[in-house]
C-alpha cells in the first residue's frame, strides 16, 4: 500500500549490503544543491598540496579527539580530479577523527548570521558511524563546536551527502566542517561545497490586531478544569492528562477521593478518570511507548500540630493513553513525595529525592527498567546516598550524564554550589559553579534551551518558601559543551504587574517571580509566563520570550488574565498554542479556569503544512522524507510536556537538519544520539523563515523492537569531548537510610487551620510582625476567617485566646 512506503536512506545501523543498495539509489537520483554556485571553499577537492613539509592538502587539517587509532591519507581514488582524503579508524574507545577545513581566516568560509548554508560532499564508507560535524567561529569566544547535522549511510560506491545548516547564530563570522568517523571503519571524501541559500523570505503579513501580532493573545476557555490538577502531561494523541489525586484537599484525601481527567483540546471535551491512589505531588514521565509512568504520591498529610510532615508513597502506576486507565507496576524501594523523573537514552527512567513514608528525605536512587517494565531492586542501582531535595531538576546530557540545574521545590538548594553533574556510571557528583543565590531557587524553572544539540540550560527566577523573600528575577545560563562549564549571568527577568492583595501594581526593584512556567516553542524561543512574588501568594502578571539565539528577553507580551502561582503549569499543544492551568494559593482555594495562549507567530499569515510524513516510526540516524506545501527554514522534534511545580526536566527541542531536495520535498536527518532525543513520541514541527510553525505531526523515535533487533546493534551516540575538565568529584555520603528533613519543609505553619491551608511560617518582609498586620494580610489574601488554632499560637494570631484566628 502507498502509505507503507518508507525511505530510510540514512538509517543509522544499516548493514553493508543495505548501504550499498541505498547508495545506488542516491546515485540514480542525485540531490543537487538548491543554492548553486559559488562554492565558498578553497581547495574543495584536495587538489592543491599544502606548504612544504605539510602532511595535509592546503586548507585542510587533521582533527578529532579521544582514545582511538587512526590514519589520514591523500589517495588517488577520487570522485573528481586526482585526489581524495581517506580517514581510517582501526581501534576506538571513544572520540572521532575527521579532515576539517582549516580554522583560519584564509580557509574557513565567511558566513552571515541569520543565513543558512548547504553543505555537501562526495564520500565512500564502510561504517555507519559517520557524521557531518560543523564548527563555528564566535567573534568573542573563538572557535567552538556548533552541531552535528547528518549521519550519511554506508556506501561502497561514491555517494553524495548534502544538508542545510540551521540559521547561523549571532556573532558568527566563519564556519568549518568535515565528515567525522566515530566508529571502526574507513571513510573517503572528496569535492566538498559550501553554498549560501539564496532565497530571501517574504515579509510576514499581520492577520490580527497590532497587539496580537506583537504580543500574542490569551483566551479563557468556557470549559473549566474538572479536577484540582497538580500535574499535566501532553499525551501522544494530543490530549492532556491532568492529575489531581486529592488535589491538596485533605477532605478529599480522608474520603479516598482521588481524581484525574483527560482533556481533549480539539473537541473541547473532558473525561474524568478513576485514580487508584493519591497521586498528589507524584513524579511522572513518558515512556518510550507513549505510556506515562507515575511514581509515588501522597501517603499522608501533615498532622494538625505539625509534628509529622507529608509522607511519600512507594506506589507506581502506568497510564495508557489508548485505554485511559492506570495499571500498577511494582513498588519503588521507598516513598518519594516530590520525586524527580528523567528518561534516559536507553528508555530507562531514573528518579531521586522526595520524602519517604516517615517524612524524612529519601537518599535512594531509583531506576525503572524499560526492558523489564519494573523498578529495579536497590542493590541493582548505583547509589551515592545523596539527598537531592524535592523535585530536583535532573536534565539528561548528551553523553548520558545528568545535570542538576539547581531548580527544586521547597527550601534551600543542595549543599555546595547548588548545581552539579551526576555521572551514574562512575557514581560521582561534581559541583559546577556560578549559580547565583542558590538558596533562592525554590520553584524556579530550568530548561534545556533549543536546540538540544547546543547543550545549554537556562534557569529562571525562584524564591524560598521557608524564609519567604520576594522572588528574584535572576536568570543564569550554562553551556555544558565547555570543558569546565559554569553558570553565567543572563539578563534579568522582565517585570510586570503584581497583586499583593490590594490590586495590581507595577513590580519594582529586584522583584521577580517563583512558580514560573517555561515552555519551549517551535520557533525556538522560550515562553516564560505565570508566577508569584511570594510563597503561594501575590500573583505576577507578566510574560516574555527568551531568545536563545541572542540571550535576550522580549518583554511586554500579553499576560494570562488568570493568576498562576502554586500548582500551576503551562505547556505546548500540538497546534503550537500554549495551555495554562491551575492556581492553588495558600488559602486552599483552586482556580479551575483554563487559559490558551496564541503566540504572535500564529498571527503572521498562513501556516506551512506538512503535506506528508512518509513514515512515523523513526530510528536513530534515519533520513526521513517529508513534503511541505511551501519552503520551510527548519524542522524539529519537541518532546511533549510532563510538568509539575515549574519542573519538566525532560522538555527538549531537537533540531532536524534538512537535506532540501526541492522547495516541497525535504529529507530530515535524525540524530544518532539517543541521549539527545530519548526514545518516545515527539511532536514534529516544520517552521518557515518567519518563525511560523506547522501543526505538529506525531512521530515515534526509537523504532519497532523487531526492526531494532534486525539491525543487530544499538545506536552509537556521536558524542563530543565536553564537560571533561570538571573539578574533582565531591565525596559521597556514607550509606544511610535517610536525610533529616523538618516537618515544616512545605513552609506552612501547621498550628492554624487544616493541612490544605498554608499560613506562611514567615510572612513577607513588608508585613509588620504584629497581630493586626498579619491578620490584615491573611484577610487580603482571602484566608478563611476564624481558622482553628492547633495547640500553641506561635504567630500570635489568636489574641483573645478563643482557639480561632483573628
From TrEMBL:
GO BP annotations listed: carbohydrate metabolic process
Domain spans labelled Galactose oxidase-like Early set: 607-700
Pfam families, per the entry: Glyoxal_oxid_N, GO-like_E_set
Gene3D superfamilies for the chain: Galactose oxidase/kelch, beta-propeller, Galactose-binding domain-like, Immunoglobulins
Domain Glyoxal oxidase N-terminal span(s) in chain numbering: 260-595
Domain of life: Bacteria
Coiled-coil residue spans: none
Family matches, as PROSITE patterns: TAT (PS51318)
Protein name (Swiss-Prot/TrEMBL): Uncharacterized protein
Protein species of origin: Streptomyces lavendulae subsp. lavendulae
Amino acid at each position: 500500500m502507498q502509505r507503507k512506503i518508507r525511505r530510510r536512506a540514512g538509517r543509522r545501523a544499516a548493514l553493508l549490503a543495505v548501504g550499498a543498495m541505498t547508495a545506488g539509489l542516491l546515485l540514480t537520483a542525485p540531490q543537487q544543491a538548491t543554492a548553486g554556485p559559488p562554492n565558498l571553499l578553497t581547495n574543495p577537492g584536495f587538489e592543491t598540496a599544502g606548504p612544504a613539509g605539510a602532511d595535509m592538502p592546503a586548507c585542510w587539517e587533521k582533527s578529532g579527539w579521544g582514545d582511538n587509532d587512526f590514519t589520514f591519507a591523500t589517495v588517488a581514488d577520487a570522485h573528481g580530479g586526482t585526489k581524495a582524503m581517506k580517514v581510517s579508524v582501526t581501534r576506538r574507545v571513544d572520540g572521532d577523527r575527521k579532515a576539517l577545513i582549516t580554522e583560519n581566516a584564509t580557509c574557513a568560509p565567511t558566513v552571515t548570521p541569520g543565513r543558512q548554508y548547504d553543505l555537501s560532499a562526495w564520500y565512500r564508507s564502510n561504517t555507519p558511524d559517520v557524521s557531518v560535524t560543523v564548527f563555528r567561529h564566535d567573534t568573542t569566544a573563538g572557535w567552538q563546536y556548533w552541531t552535528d547535522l547528518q549521519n550519511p549511510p554506508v556506501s561502497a560506491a561514491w555517494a553524495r551527502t548534502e544538508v542545510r545548516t540551521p540559521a547561523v547564530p549571532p556573532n558568527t563570522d566563519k564556519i568549518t566542517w568535515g565528515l567525522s568517523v566515530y566508529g571502526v571503519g574507513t571513510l573517503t571524501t572528496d569535492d566538498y561545497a559550501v553554498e549560501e541559500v539564496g532565497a530571501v523570505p517574504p515579509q510576514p503579513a499581520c492577520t490580527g490586531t497590532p497587539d496580537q501580532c506583537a504580543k500574542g493573545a490569551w483566551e479563557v476557555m468556557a470549559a473549566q478544569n474538572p479536577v484540582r490538577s497538580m500535574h499535566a502531561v501532553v499525551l501522544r494523541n494530543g490530549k492532556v492528562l491532568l492529575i489531581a489525586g486529592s488535589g491538596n484537599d485533605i477532605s478529599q484525601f480522608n474520603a479516598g477521593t482521588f481524581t484525574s481527567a483527560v482533556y481533549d483540546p480539539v473537541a473541547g471535551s473532558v473525561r474524568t478518570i478513576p485514580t487508584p491512589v493519591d497521586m498528589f505531588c507524584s513524579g511522572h514521565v513518558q515512556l518510550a511507548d507513549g505510556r506515562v509512568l507515575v511514581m509515588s504520591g501522597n501517603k499522608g498529610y501533615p498532622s494538625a500540630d505539625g509534628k509529622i510532615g507529608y509522607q511519600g508513597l512507594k506506589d507506581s502506576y502506568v497510564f495508557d493513553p489508548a485505554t485511559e486507565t492506570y495499571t500498577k507496576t511494582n513498588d519503588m524501594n521507598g516513598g518519594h513525595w516530590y520525586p524527580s523523573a528523567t528518561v534516559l537514552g536507553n528508555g530507562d527512567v531514573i528518579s531521586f529525592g522526595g520524602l519517604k513514608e516517615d517524612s524524612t528525605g529519601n537518599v535512594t536512587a531509583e531506576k525503572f527498567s524499560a526492558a523489564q517494565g519494573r523498578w529495579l531492586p536497590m542493590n541493582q542501582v548505583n547509589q551515592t546516598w545523596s539527598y537531592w531535595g524535592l523535585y530536583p531538576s535532573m536534565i539528561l546530557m548528551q553523553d548520558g550524564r545528568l545535570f542538576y540545574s539547581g531548580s527544586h521545590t521547597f527550601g534551600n538548594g543542595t549543599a555546595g554550589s547548588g548545581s552539579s553533574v551526576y555521572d551514574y556510571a562512575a557514581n560521582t557528583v561534581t559541583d559546577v559553579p556560578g549559580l547565583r543565590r542558590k538558596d533562592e531557587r525554590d520553584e524556579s524553572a530550568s530548561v534545556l534551551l533549543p536546540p538540544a544539540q547546543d547543550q545549554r540550560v537556562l534557569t529562571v527566577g525562584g524564591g524560598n518558601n521557608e524564609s519567604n523573600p520576594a522572588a528574584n528575577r535572576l536568570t543564569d545560563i550554562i553551556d555544558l559543551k565547555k570543558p569546565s562549564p559554569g553558570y553565567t549571568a543572563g539578563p534579568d527577568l522582565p517585570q510586570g504587574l503584581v497583586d499583593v492583595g490590594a490590586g495590581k501594581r507595577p513590580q519594582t526593584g529586584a522583584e521577580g517571580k517563583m512558580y514560573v512556567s517555561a515552555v519551549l516553542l517551535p520557533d525556538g524561543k522560550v515562553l516564560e509566563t505565570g508566577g508569584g512574588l511570594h510563597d503561594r501568594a501575590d500573583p505576577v502578571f507578566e510574560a516574555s520570550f527568551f531568545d536563545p539565539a541572542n540571550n535576550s528577553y522580549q518583554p511586554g507580551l500579553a499576560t494570562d488574565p488568570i493568576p498562576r502561582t502554586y500548582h500551576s503549569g503551562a505547556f505546548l499543544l500540538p497546534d503550537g498554542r500554549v495551555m495554562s492551568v491551575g492556581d492553588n494559593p495558600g488559602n486552599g482555594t483552586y482556580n479551575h479556569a483554563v487559559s490558551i495562549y496564541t503566540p504572535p507567530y500564529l498571527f503572521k499569515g498562513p501556516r506551512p503544512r506538512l503535506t506528508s510524513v512518509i513514515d512515523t516510526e523513526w530510528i536513530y540516524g534515519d533520513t526521513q522524507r517529508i513534503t511541505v506545501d511551501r519552503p520551510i527554514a527548519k524542522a524539529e522534534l519537541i518532546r511533549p510536556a510532563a510538568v509539575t511545580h515549574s519542573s519538566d526536566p525532560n522538555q527538549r527541542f531537537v533540531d532536524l537538519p534538512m537535506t532540501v531536495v526541492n522547495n516541497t520535498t525535504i529529507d530530515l536527518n535524525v540524530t544518532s544520539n539517543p541521549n539527545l532525543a530519548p526514545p518516545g513520541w515527539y511532536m514534529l514541527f516544520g517552521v518557515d523563515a518567519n518563525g511560523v510553525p506547522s501543526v505538529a505531526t506525531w512521530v515515534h523515535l526509537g523504532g519497532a523492537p523487531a526492526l531494532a533487533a534486525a539491525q543487530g546493534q544499538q545506536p552509537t551516540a556521536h558524542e563530543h569531548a565536553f564537560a571533561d575538565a570538571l573539578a574533582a568529584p565531591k565525596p559521597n555520603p556514607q550509606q544511610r537510610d535517610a536525610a533529616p528533613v523538618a516537618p515544616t519543609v512545605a513552609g506552612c505553619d501547621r498550628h492554624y487551620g487544616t493541612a490544605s491551608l498554608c499560613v506562611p511560617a514567615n510572612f513577607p518582609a513588608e508585613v509588620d510582625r504584629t497581630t493586626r498586620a498579619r491578620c490584615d494580610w491573611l484577610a487580603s489574601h482571602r484566608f478563611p476567617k476564624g481558622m482553628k488554632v492547633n495547640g500553641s499560637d506561635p504567630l500570635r494570631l489568636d489574641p483573645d485566646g478563643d482557639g480561632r484566628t483573628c
